[in-house]
Amino acid sequence: MTTSHAVVVGGGIAGLAAAHALARDGVRVTVLEGSPQIGGKLRVSEIAGVPVDEGAESMLARRPEGMDLVRDLGRSADLVNPGTTSSAILSRGALRAIPSGQVMGVPSDLKALAASQVLSPAGLARVPLDLVLPETRRGGDVSVADFIGARVGREVVDRLVEPLLGGVYAGRVELLSFDATLPAVAAAARGHRSLINAVQGIRDAAPKDPGPVFATLPDGLGALPPLVADGIAAAGGTVRTGAMVRELRRREDGWRLTIGPTRDPEYLDADAVVVAVPAAPASRLLAQEAPAAARELAGIEYASMAIITLAYRATAFPRLPDGSGYLVPGVESDPARGGRGVKAVTFSSVKWPHLRDRDPGVIVVRCSIGRFGEEHTLQRPDEELTATAMAELAATCGATELPAETRVTRWGGGLPQYNVGHADRVAKVRAAVAGTPGLAVAGAAYDGLGIPACIASARAAATRVLDHLRSREGAGHDRAGGQAEGTRTQ
């Protein structure tokens, strides 16, 4: 299929994974990334001489897609796992262990829940009512807060479910879709009157020894995109940065993409296109050729966040922090309610022993700030965000020294919100795209924000493109593909 040319718009992990799959199948691929560098929210840089991720720091090891991609790149032996995954929740003024027996904060072990002391006595007393309450009926999709709150009480939502989901979506539980953000729990709940029993069923069905939960690369997960790009190049593909696609139009024999500024546009022809950019730019690109998909994509909102990375000397802490980190519920972190504003803390040098091995005298900590609807908290200068993170660590860990080095990474509009109705919205996008031959979509806006989920969407998009190209060949379309270098107007 080397005469066929496919263009992938977007050089994040989804776009790169789609291009890698296509190139391995013999398609000539061009990746167009509008920013100066590939990788999207996978980026790594040094702080105090230690390579630390600025975005996502790990991927689920229990889903195969990410691990398979690393294996295909010949780097499986390089993968490292956390030294600890035990974490805590800052609740009611103290760090408390996340109770065992829960699934994304929804409890199944009431003794463990009580022992954790995450909930108040009143909140704890409300939970077992789930076992005797009549079924909570739901027809279509509902919010996380509405369903789980009705079953086990609002305090479980606020102090367990919200912080765990907040680490993924930075969203509002009153808006987030139960079906889309907690699909396993939502599906199990349809077969049980009690939510506690539904979660217990999930726990009982889980493998007894599932292996490590997370994995990363020694130089950070931000090292993965360049490895994928190298694989694309080795298979004959091209990866371009600073190539902003402004327009996507169908032609009789394929597609034409307009790249660059209006005063000096470049045109690139392709037999098929994968759109692997966030929802808003995807909506703009699809407005002419797939307007129904564009309308649905325009309705997906995004949350912004910032990650403040602090490198302390080990002497800054009275004792080495315990566990991989802790989460802060919104009811605890909201500055308007007296909170400090941080929503999550990761003790990177504790969680990842290979980072500590780089320099045992340095303790790297990452603090996350920002939730959906709180963009104003991120409009402060870097110095204020850094001070917020330092105050958090002084209060919870007793850090008494100034950090040796700090870094602020802002991810504006970085996290798509899977709000109520998200699954239906995505189904409409896919139905509209299915009616447009040679077009596919991929990325975090559809079926999951994690690295494996993005790679899964990329593989599905690549399969759709390959099916289209093979059908063209089967119909007797034996012609050259588009011009990989493009043409520029005179």
TrEMBL record:
Q: In which pathway does it act?
A: Porphyrin-containing compound metabolism; protoheme biosynthesis
Main location per the UniProt record: cytoplasm
Q: Explain the purpose of this protein.
A: Involved in coproporphyrin-dependent heme b biosynthesis. Catalyzes the oxidation of coproporphyrinogen III to coproporphyrin III.
Record GO terms (molecular function): oxygen-dependent protoporphyrinogen oxidase activity
* Chain segments carrying region Disordered: 471-490
Q: Which family does it belong to?
A: Belongs to the protoporphyrinogen/coproporphyrinogen oxidase family. Coproporphyrinogen III oxidase subfamily.
SUPFAM superfamilies, per database record: FAD-linked reductases, C-terminal domain, FAD/NAD(P)-binding domain
Q: Which domain of life is it from?
A: Bacteria
Output this protein's name.
Answer: Coproporphyrinogen III oxidase
Query: Which Gene3D superfamilies does the entry link to?
Result: FAD/NAD(P)-binding domain (3.50.50.60), protoporphyrinogen ix oxidase, domain 3 (1.10.3110.10), Protoporphyrinogen oxidase, mitochondrial, domain 2 (3.90.660.20)
Write the record's keywords in alphabetical order, separated by commas.
Answer: Cytoplasm, FAD, Flavoprotein, Heme biosynthesis, Oxidoreductase
Recorded name of the encoding gene: hemG
Q: Which residues form the Amine oxidase domain?
A: 13-466
Q: What is its EC number?
A: 1.3.3.15
Q: Where is the composition biased (Basic and acidic residues)?
A: 471-480
The listed locations are:
Cytoplasm
InterPro entries, per the entry: Amino_oxidase, FAD/NAD-bd_sf, Protoporphyrinogen_oxidase, Zeta_carotene_desat/Oxidored
